[in-house]
């Protein structure tokens, strides 16, 4: 996969974080589900099936921002060495996928990219298993 993967992931994480902040992620607190209602801190929205209400509440902006920061830390451990810029050469004294001699990008980076496989800017040389994971199940069945 090309070197476009890291900038692509940074852009997606920036988008995720910006959307979470616009939804009140910096100062709202945690969203909560109460039966058919989701409490969005500033207001409540009823009418959800309870399972969907819980799902929405579990993806509150504060949680999304924590998740984005965790993914950024993973990404920082896997970018190309600025000293060499060569994906075939290991990092110096690092215990990461390049230092261990695994191909770059490693499975960790491919996994970080997989939720975004249907994004129009996703690098074109994505392995087939990542592209398949992004296809809706019905579309995968139809291709068989």
Key descriptive features of the protein:
144 residues; 3 strands
Would you give an account of this structure?
By secondary structure, the protein is mainly alpha-helical. The chain has 6 helices and 3 strands. The chain has a 3-stranded antiparallel sheet, with helices on one face. A hairpin with a 2-residue loop joins β1 and β2. α1 (5-22) runs antiparallel to α3 (61-76). The longest helix is centred in the first third of the chain and has 18 residues, at 5-22. The two termini are 26 Å apart. Residues 137-144 have low confidence and may be disordered.
Describe the structure concisely.
By secondary structure, the chain is mainly α.
Radius of gyration: 19 Å
N-to-C order of helices and strands: HEEEHHHHH
Distance between the termini: 26 Å
pLDDT below 50 for ≥5 consecutive residues: which ranges?
A: 137-144
Helix proportion range: 40-55%
Give the secondary structure arrangement, pairings included.
Layout: H1 5-22, E1 32-34, E2 37-39, E3 44-45, H2 50-58, H3 61-76, H4 107-113, H5 128-134, H6 137-143
Antiparallel strand pairs: 1-2, 2-3
Helix pairs in contact: 1-3
């Amino acid at each position: 996969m090309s070197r476009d993967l890291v900038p692509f992931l940074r852009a997606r994480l920036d988008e995720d974080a910006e959307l979470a902040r616009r939804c009140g992620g910096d100062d709202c607190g945690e969203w909560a589900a109460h039966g058919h209602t989701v409490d969005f801190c500033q207001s409540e929205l009823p009418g959800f099936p309870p399972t969907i209400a819980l799902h929405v509440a579990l993806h509150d902006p504060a949680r999304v921002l924590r998740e984005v920061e965790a993914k950024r830390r993973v990404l920082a451990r896997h970018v190309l060495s600025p000293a060499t810029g060569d994906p075939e050469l290991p990092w110096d004294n690092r215990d990461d996928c390049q230092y261990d001699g695994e191909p770059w990008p490693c499975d960790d980076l491919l996994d970080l990219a997989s939720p975004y496989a249907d994004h129009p800017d996703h690098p074109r040389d994505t392995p087939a298993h990542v592209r398949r994971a992004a296809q809706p199940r019905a579309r995968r069945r139809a291709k068989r």
